Predict the 3D structure of the following.
Amino acid sequence: MSKFRKYTFEDIEVPASMLTGRLAHVSPLALKILYKRGYQSREALEDALFGKLDKTLFMTEMQGTKEALPLLADAIKNKTQIVVYQDYDVDGCAAGAVCLETIRALGGDIQCYVNDREVDGYGIRKHGIDRIGQLYPAAKVILTVDNGITAHDEVTYAKEKGYTIIVTDHHSPGSTLPKADAVIDPKREDEFYPFHELCGTAVAFKLMLALYQYLERDTAPVLNTIDLVGFATVADIVPLIGQNRDFVREALRMMNKGTRPAFQMMKEMSGVNEINAQRTIAYIFAPMVNALSRMGEDPYIATNMLIARDDAFLRKSVEFMMKINNERKQQTDDQARIAKEILMQEMESIYGTQTEAEFLQTLPPAIVIKSDEFTEGIIGIVAGRLKNEFYRPVIVLAPSGDGVLKASCRSIDGFHLKNNLDKLSDLLMVYGGHAKAAGLSISEDNLIEFKQRFLTLAETIDEEKRKEVVELDAVLTMEQVTVKQIQDLRILEPYGEAFPPPIFGLKFTYDTVRYMGADNVHVKYWNREHNLSVIEWHGGEAERKRIAQKKRRTKVIGTLSINEYQGNLSPQFIIEN
C-alpha cells in the first residue's frame, strides 16, 4: 500500500423506499455503491444507471452558438473554405474529426490544421495562422476546437488577417473572452448551459448538432459521431458524471457494435474482445493517438484515421500508431527512471544515504526536476507518474532551445496549480492550466528562484491533504465475492475520472499460497470453498517475509474481476498496490 494513501469506510444503507420499480431489479451492492457516491434520490440513481441521453442530447444552445450558426451556414452555402484549428491530443483530434465529417456531409469545404507540438506547443498560434494562409489560401473561416479560449492576441491577429474566427473550447477562460466572432465554451462565466464539464469534442458536437437543426437537416450524420465524443470524454479525463456518462455509455455501445471502421480496426489489431472505458480507451486506444504528437509525428494521421473508411489505409494507420506508441512507452519508462534517480540523488545530497523509508519521509512538499534527457512530449506522463507515486505537486522540465525550458505540471487535492502559478507569473514566459494540470515555459536563468518559491508555496498544503484519501465502496465477505455479483456490478460502468471502479475491503481466509511470474514476484492466495483467488502483483517478497514471521493476512483492499480459464469462470480479488 502506498505510504501516501489512506483508506476510510462508512457504511450507508439505501432507503428501502427506493428499492422499487426498475431499481428493484438492480444489484443491492450496486445501488449501495451509487448511494454512497452521492446519488441519493430515485431520479439520480436511475439517471446514473440507465442514462438520460434522449433528454439532454438536443440541448445545444450554449452562449455564442447563435452567433456561430449563420457564419458557418453562410460559409457552407457559399463554398467558403473553413479550417478547423485543432489541438494535437485525443480531444483535439476527435473534435477535428467530428467537424470534418459532419460539415463535409453538408457539402462544406473544410480542412484541418494542427500545431507541431515541438514548434508551437498548445493552442492557436500566430505561426499557425500564417501557416494556414500558406496551406489554405482560400480559407476565410477558422474554427478552433479544444483551444482558443485564452488566445486573445492570436484571435486579434487572425481578425487583422481578415479571418472570421469561431472559438470552441472547454478550458477555463480568463477574466475576458477573446474578440472572436463567436466564442462557445461551457465554462464561460455567463453560461446558462446546465452542464459545464464537457470535453472539447462534446462542445464541437453540440455546435454541429445545432448547425444541422439550424439548416433543417437530418441530424443522423452528427449523431453518428457520438462514438468520437465518448472516446474523447474518457481520454481527456473530464469527470464521468452527468451528460458525460451518457455520451460514453452510448459511445461504447456504438464502438462494440462496430459502427466506425477506425475503432473496429483498433480493436482488431489490439486484440481486444470488448471495448470498455477504463481499460481499452484509457490505456490502449487513447495512448496510441496521443503518442503521435509526443513523438514528433503528425496528429492529423489520427484525425484522418478516425473518419476513414478504407480498410487498407486504416490498417496502415493503426499499425503506425501502435509502433509509435511502443516507442513512446520505452521513452516514458526511461525518462521516469531518470526522474526518480535525479530525485533520489538530490535527497542524498541533502541527507546522505537513506533507506527507502527515510527517503519517503524526507521528500520535499513538491517535486521540481529538470534534465536535458527529458523530452517535451513525454514529461507530462512522467509528471503524472511521480505525482501518483509520491502524492505531491510535480513539475518536470525539459529543454526547448535558446535557454528556454518547457514544463508539465501535475497536482493533488489541496494545491491549485493555476492559482499558485499566478503567484509566480513574474518568472514565467507562458503558462496556463487548471487545478490539477498545467504547462509553462520559463527561462533557465529563472529556474532556481522558481523552484525555491514553488516549494515554499507547497509548504502551505495542509497536513490532512498530504495523503490521498480513498473511500471504500463496501467491505465484503468471501460469500459476497461471486461471479454473478461481479457481473451484476457491470451495470455501474462506464468508469473513469470522478467515477472510478469500486474499491472494496475484503475479509478472507486462504488454503494455499502460490507465487507467480519471473522470480516469484507475484503472489496468489486461494480459498478452496469459494474458489476465490486473491492476487497481489509484486507482492511475493512481502508475503515471504510474512511467512517467515508466521503472519497471515485476513484483510485486504482492492478490486473485483473475473478469471476465465478453459471456459470456466471464477472470481478474483486484485489487491491494491
